[in-house]
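2024-03-11 09:14:02 INFO queue: dequeued item FMN reductase, len=203
2024-03-11 09:14:02 INFO validating residues
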Amino acid sequence: MTTRRIVVLSAGLSTPSSTRLLADRLAAAVTAALADRGERAEVQVVELREHARDLADHLVAGFPNTALAPVLESVAAADAVVAVTPIFSASYSGLFKTFVDVLDRDALTGTPVLLAATGGTARHSLALEHAMRPLFAYLRAATVPTAVFAAPEDWGATEVGTTLDGRVGRAAGELADAVAARPPATRTDLFADVPDFTSLLKG
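2024-03-11 09:14:37 INFO prediction written
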């Protein structure tokens, strides 16, 4: 059984958050879908709020600190990414965009990505298509057809065919199919060729 590395990005700003709740539900569904296809999932959930200052440091310094570097490496080496953000002002959050801004331009090329979001009203659901999908198209990621949006009323919906669980399951299946069709990703160190400061000082 092949082990696939799945990185789940959660851009929720509170603890607990509906964004993290949706991220966990998607992670569980992807794990189950991969198991159905004879694949084992190794899931890493990244709470971006825990790296807010690290991201700001990166923007100012131009390189990641020791806390952020492993996260960027994990994303670049992932077999798939689940990206979940709250929607503010009809688009992804500033925290989520900042993380995308510091990613290596080729980190997600060809990587299967499942897009998901939470919001205070279902009217924000189109942000997945007019904001998030173009963003990941720019990064040349392979986004799956089904994106998952969760409004407050979705958490308790029970109508067959329209439930949040139904959308989560469909999207997870699409991501699992995309992952199973690809060879395992190779882990590379994005910063292996960067000299340390001692070497720079020695000239």
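2024-03-11 09:14:37 INFO annotate: The longest helix spans residues 18-36.
2024-03-11 09:14:38 INFO item closed
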